[in-house]
Peptidase S8/S53 domain-containing protein
Amino acid sequence: MHRSRPTVAFAARTVTFSVVFGFGVVGIATAPAAAAAPCPSVDRTVKDVIAAKPWPQQRWDLSALPRGIDGSGVVVAVLDSGVDREHPQLRGQVLAGRDMLPGGGTDGRQDCVGHGTGVASVIAAKPVAGVEFRGIAPGVQILPIRVSEQLGGQENSTSARQADVKDMATAVRYAVDKGADVINLSLSYGDTAPNKLNEFRDAIRDAIAHDVVVIAAVGNAKQKGNPTPYPASWDNVFGVGAIDEAGQRLQASQTGPYVDLVAPGDQVTVARPGHGHGKESGTSFAAPMVAATAALVRQAYPALTESQVRQRLQATADPAPGGRRSDDYGVGILNPVRAVTDVLDGTARVTPAVLAPRAADPAAEAAADRAAQQRSQARWLAGVGVILAGLVLALAVALPNGIRRRWRAAGS
């Protein structure tokens, strides 16, 4: 679904950047930094492979999605730490992107810390034999844009590279220009004056104006003052909180009117750079579940605008604790299957453009034909039986009367 879009230039700013990686919300200065060397080669030794089915996939039966609905043809931009294209479940899924880090010289397909690879895998990991974990939209193409190597929990650290506000805006505009249909932002600016984020905000507004669905994590600082998160709190950005397996909001998941809905974000199975899997927690890993679902909706209903996609995500959410909209849970809990298959009332009703029937099974069809023929024969025999029974009854009544009245058969 590539769309040709303009690239817009702008000026640089210096602010404090807070990144939502895992449970940590980190503030670091983003003044222009000296060029940093590329990260060392990723350790590609075999890591643990998690074969068990992850709990979010147990919650949703993704096999109930219509055949062919897997995000194919949809581009999701992941603004993160990069994405490792060599992971077996991501090979062939990752486009050449861009590196916005100071001194960065990659095409975005290198991940030194693993966060972006994990996020991308939640969206687009392909099914492989012996592993139950898969992305929600394994047909999606990932557009990786490196903007941070900062992991949560390393408070006040300046050792990791970060993109500044100018480069964040450039990253968003680059994603739009390269045809992204959905942008995932598992990051947040916290404790930052909004007027210092004007360039980034304007780039987000432009992306939305160009019909791009923008998904953002609401952050993991509930217990650290619950600061207003940007971009999740900006108009028309879809803010995502996190729940655990019991359906309860994670304690760290921030709350406020900017929470549009929640998704699984506790002990989420993700791909690790190189090979294998791990588990992560936080709104960073809830957001890509929503981004993947938005991709499914964009494939199934290509005529929907980004606003209608957001409305559909909310209209098909499962009830959250309390049963009504709240600052903790938004309108409810994400349901990818309902987001695609539910028929909505009113103006939102649409007919999926790509809802291919499930593959025909010749043996099953032959059995169905035989069963239908047998049912037809049974109905015919039943009808004949009713007629014969009626004749017998009529004769049983008429013959005695005929004998009494001396009736004779014709020709007798």
